[in-house]
Amino acid sequence: MKSRSLDKPITPKLSDYMNGHIEGHVHSPAHSREFTLDWMEGRNKGIGCRIPCLYDSDIRLLPGSLAIWAGINGHGKSALLQQFCLWWSAGKFTDKPEKVLFWSPEMIFHVQVERMIKQSLGVDEPTREASNYTMDYLDGKVAIYDKEENVTAKEVAALARWAADNGYTQLVVDSLSMVNLKVVRKDDLNLNEQSFVRMLKEAARSTGLHIHLVVHMRKGENEYRHTGKMDIKGAGEITDMADYVFIIERNVKKEEALEKNPDDENHLKKPDGSVRCIKNRYDPVHRSLPLWFCGKMFTFRKGRRTPIPRLIEPTREDLKRGYESK
Fold first, then answer.
1. How far is CA 326 from the centre of its chain?
2. How far is Cα 130 from Cα 127, in angstroms, rounded to an integer?
3. pLDDT digit string, tens, across residues 47-56
4. Could you give phi then psi for residue 255, rounded to 5 degrees?
5. What global pTM score does this model have?
6. CA dihedral 236, 239, 241, 242 (to 10 degrees)
7. Where are the domains of the chain?
8. Can the peptide bond before residue 177 be classed as cis, meaning omega within 30 degrees of 0?
9. Considering only CA atoms, which of 130, 173, 132, 122 is closest in space to residue 293?
10. Contacts from 25-29 at CB under 8 Å and sequence distance 24+?
11. Diameter of the chain by CA atoms?
12. What does the pLDDT look like over 160-177, one tens digit per residue?
């Protein structure tokens, strides 16, 4: 007996049973056949963004996904994510051209640009000439939404759709705590953190954007213990809705030990921190990657003696300054 396709009208109508917009949303697996097959073929070929600069990582962030980057204040989550985005915007560790829009109101505009320049050059005191060149290099690859006060959830959702319509492939929201979730105008939505994250999730899926949300950790007894999903500040449901969750941690014990004895080799060989993937909705890959911090250029590398990651070759004077940084 030949089965009836689910794409044909259902009788009686579902609307006869409940009030809602259900009609037209029940489909056979063969619905959007070519789109699904193209997606699967792309997955087999490795679409998405890999973790840059650090490893030949098998973790891939897929288009249309929401990633949460969490960590204790001052542990480097914003710096690490910005470093990754700069490399993606340069066409590295990704399968497609990328264009990144940042909203980071916790950091003054020119300070964020300064950090981008240092990360791109891999030096801590770039010359004016090299800085000018770097800003020209980044033009058209990254941009910053320079608004600080009273940015509502509705505005951030609109920003995501604007970004997608203007050629951006990635949006960084840094951070959740800076979004105004209270009603400040009659036409704004009164939302909680869970509702806002749901809005970002829907925006990512409908636009194809990679959306990155930076969140803080709840204050604990100390900074020594490993943090987990349950330590992330805000409603627990926000990590449930995310496609990826990463936690960035500093090795505070190492820092304190080296303050007492800078030549303590037992601690010098240990990483300065780590980035851990604690949730990956699309693949069974959950890894913890060690990090070494490169000083005032706010850049991370994968080993104690590995080269400092650079997008742009700095001047000889910049290199001299950069290599003097510890």
1. 27
2. 5
3. 999 999 887 7
4. -60, -45
5. 0.87
6. 170
7. 62-219+226-323
8. no
9. 122
10. none
11. 80
12. 999 999 999 999 999 899
